[in-house]
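Project outcomes to date are best conveyed with an example. Our students and postdoctoral researchers have been running inverse folding experiments weekly, and each run begins with a structure described purely in tokens. The record below, which covers 366 residues, was selected by the lab manager from last quarter's runs and is presented without edits.
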């Protein structure tokens, strides 16, 4: 469901799905998209984490178009993307030692680092904060686009504000076609959840958003850092402006189940049979380990009822689960289910980052 009204813009799509390991061809295909960015227009593009909606970070009116296209509250700051280390001097006052260590270890890659900003960055990028988040993405499409554009690019996730982040080109087209100048349609995102956001302006540094690069990996590079606990409220988290808004919400209410895999399975079967008995189209977020068992029970006990069971991946491969989490939520939107019943994961390592997203998508945790 798309809640914003006018979709009046002409959006040009740049299809690069067929390009594998050919930087030259990417450059040819992305030249016009890069020009659009340099000229102050908005272009969505794939990164290794999720698709981003970019605009020239040094151009205030360009950045404002991002907030408009997404319907994003203006007090939620954006991440600035760079392709070269030399671009940092336009963006931040200084690169603290811990930030430098993080860059050496994880850039290009899925870690955004918050540092003190320079005044060359317009207020609307940072929502008026005196800090700015910066990231150097890893995938070839983003790298070539940023390099050709020649400017730092502010880019939040390329979804309508509040909806699940986009990990496939069709997600971006669904949300933003008609609202942005360009969309680079590449392959699906390998990581699937957004970058780890770490603020190095406080001591110890604080992870404001967990990602595929875990607390343990960060600590192995810069020593102890703080991390907001899992079901924390805004008041426990220092300086996390985006935290107070609805996130990742599928159209239907979503109930997240906790406990052992056996308990979750039993509880979800029971809840599914109950909602199906009331005529509610029911979606189940299962795992590779449980999907067949749900199908078996429901086909026996609720034959002919309107339900769908999707696997989010295997419990033995949490990177795969991270890659699938937003896609599953969006597939249930497409199917127009009335309720989503979801299994949860142990909140450890990457599981912690997956649960950070699922907690926010859920309307209730049982
Ligand atoms: O993987 C990603 O980070 C993706 C891709 C496109 O790079 N981008 C992304 O951006 O997820 P967005 O806008 O959806 O999330 C940025 C998060 C928000 O929670 C925002 O509040 C936080 O980073 N953030 C940005 N600048 C900040 C700052 N100066 N201080 C504190 N938090 C900040
Ligand atoms: Mg986002």
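After processing, the design step wrote out the following sequence:
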């Amino acid at each position: 469901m798309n809640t914003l009204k006018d979709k009046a813009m002409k959006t040009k799509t740049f299809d690069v799905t067929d390009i594998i390991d050919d930087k030259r061809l990417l450059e040819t295909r992305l030249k016009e998209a890069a020009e659009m960015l340099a000229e102050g227009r908005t272009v969505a593009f794939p990164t290794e984490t999720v698709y981003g909606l970019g605009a020239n970070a040094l151009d205030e009116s360009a950045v404002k178009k991002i907030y408009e296209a997404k319907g994003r509250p203006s007090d939620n700051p954006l991440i600035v993307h760079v392709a070269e280390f030399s671009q940092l001097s336009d963006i931040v006052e200084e690169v603290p030692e811990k930030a430098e260590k993080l860059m050496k270890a994880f850039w290009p890659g899925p870690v955004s680092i918050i540092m003190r900003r320079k005044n060359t960055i317009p207020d609307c990028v940072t929502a008026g904060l005196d800090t700015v988040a910066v990231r150097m993405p890893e995938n070839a499409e983003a790298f070539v686009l940023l390099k050709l554009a020649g400017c730092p690019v502010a880019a939040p996730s390329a979804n309508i504000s509040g909806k699940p982040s986009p990990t496939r080109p069709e997600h971006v087209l669904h949300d933003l076609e008609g609202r942005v100048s360009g969309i680079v349609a590449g392959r699906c995102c390998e990581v699937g959840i957004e970058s780890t956001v770490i603020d190095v302006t406080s001591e110890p540094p604080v992870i404001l958003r967990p990602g595929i690069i875990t607390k343990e990996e960060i600590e192995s590079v810069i020593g102890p850092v703080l991390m907001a606990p899992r079901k924390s409220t805004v008041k426990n988290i220092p300086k996390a402006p985006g935290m107070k808004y609805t996130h990742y919400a599928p159209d239907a209410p979503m109930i997240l189940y906790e406990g052992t895999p056996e308990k979750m399975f039993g509880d979800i079967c029971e809840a599914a049979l109950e909602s199906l008995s009331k005529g509610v189209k029911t979606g189940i977020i299962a795992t590779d380990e449980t999907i067949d068992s749900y199908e078996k029970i429901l086909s026996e006990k609720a034959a002919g009822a309107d339900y769908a069971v999707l696997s989010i991946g295997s419990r033995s491969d949490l990177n795969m689960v991270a890659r699938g989490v937003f896609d599953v939520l969006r597939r249930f939107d497409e199917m127009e289910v009335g309720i989503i019943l979801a299994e949860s994961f142990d909140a450890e390592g990457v599981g912690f980052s997956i649960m950070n997203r699922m907690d926010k998508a859920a309307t209730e945790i049982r």
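Residues 49 and 246 are 20 Å apart (CA to CA). Residues 47, 49-50, 52, 76-79, 110, 112, 114, 126, 129, 131-133, 135, 155-157, 194-195, 197, 208-209, 239-242 surround threonylcarbamoyladenylate (ligand 1) (CB under 6 Å). The training component of this project remains on track.
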